Amino acid sequence: MKKLVYVLLSLVLVTGLFAGCGNAQNPAQEVAPGGEAAQEDAGEENSPADSAPAENPAPENKGTFTLFTWEGMFPQEVLDGFEQATGYKINYSVFDTDETMLTKLEVAKGGDYDLVIADDYIIETAIAQNLVQKIDKSKIANYANINSAFQGQFYDPTDEYTVPYGSGVQTIVYDPERVDFEITGYSDLWDERLADNIGIIANYRVINGMALKTLGRSYNTNDLAEIREAGDKLITIAPNIRLIKDDSLEAELLTGEIAAGVMYTSQVTMAKLENPNLKVVFPKEGIGFGIMAGFIPSNAPNSDAAHAFLNYILDAQNGAKCFENLGYYSTNAAADELINPDYKEFLTLPEDFEQDNMEMIGNISDEANELHSTIWVEFTAACGQ
Amino acid sequence: MKVKNRAAKSSLLMAMPMYVFTILFTFGPLIYMFALSFMRRQATWGVINEFYAGNYLRILEPVFSGVFAESFKLALITTFFVTLFGYPFGYFMAKLPPKHKNRAMLLMIVPFWTNSLMRLYGWIIIFRSNGILDSVLIALHLSEKPLRLLYTYPAVVVGMVYVLLPFMIYSVYSSAEKLDWSLVEAARDLGASKTYAFLTISLRLTMPGLLSGIILTFIPSMGLYFIADILGGNKVALVGSIIQEQLLRARDWPFAAALSVALMAATSLTLYLYRRITRSEDLEGLV
Amino acid sequence: MAKKRGISFSGIYLTLILIIMYVPIVLVVIFSFNESKISSLWGGFSLNWYGELFRDRSMFEALRNSVVLGLLSSFSAAVIGTLAATGLTRYKLKSGKVMEYFATLPIMIPEIIMGMVFLTFFSLLGLPFGMVTLVIAHTSFCIPYVFLMVKARLAGLDKSYVEAARDLGASELRAFYDITMPLAMPAIVSGMLLSFAMSFDDVIISVFVTGVNTNTLPMKIYSQIKTGVTPKTNALCALIFVVTIFLCALSMRISKKK
Question: Can you name the CATH fold of B62-282?
Answer without folding.
Answer: MetI-like fold (1.10.3720)
